[in-house]
Structure formats: C-alpha cells, structure tokens
Amino acid sequence: MQSAAVKLNSLLENLEEEDYNKAVSYIELLVSRRKEQRSDRKSEEGDTDIEAIVASLTGAIPDSGKSLAEYRSERLKKYENSY
Asked: 75 and 82 in contact (C-beta within 8 Å)?
C-alpha cells in the first residue's frame, strides 16, 4: 500500500488546487461507495438484526404456560423414543 500512496502523492502534488479538490472529492466518493457495498454485503451474508430474528420466532413456541426447559425436555423425549 505504501507504493500506491507514494504514487498518488506524486500525482496529486502537480495539480492545481481546483483539480486537487476534484481528485480528493472523487476519492472520497469511491471510499464511501466501497463502505456502502461492504455494509450491504454484510447484511446479505446473514448479519441480521436481533429484532428480525425474534420476529421470525414468534409463534414457533406455543404459549401454553410451559417454560422453555419443559418444551426442551419434551422434544428430547420424542427423539429418544424414535431411536
């Protein structure tokens, strides 16, 4: 990365101020777009928020007054008997 920084520095030092500002603005635009792409990619790869996960679980466990431990033990008993 050092060689790229040196190359960029040598290119920018020969520009007039107006052109320098345009170049810097363009680089900032590229950086912001890259950050957006990375955040989009992360969300597509399964980086979902907790509220979405909880919303998807609603209704998965019927509300009949049992605790999660009781549901778990019942489920394990079902699978024990199937072997």
From this structure: no
Q: Provide the sign of the torsion angle of the four alpha carbons 13, 14, 17, 18, taken in this order.
A: negative
Tokens 């990365």 found at: 1
pLDDT digit string, tens, across residues 13-57: 888 999 999 998 999 999 999 998 888 776 665 656 777 776 667
- Give backbone dihedrals phi and psi of 59, rounded to 5 degrees, phi first: 90, -10
H/E element, 48: none
User: Side chain identity at 59, as an amino acid letter?
Assistant: G
Which residues, other chains included, contact 61 with Cβ-Cβ below 8 Å and sequence gap of 6+? 68, 71
How much is the pTM? Answer: 0.45
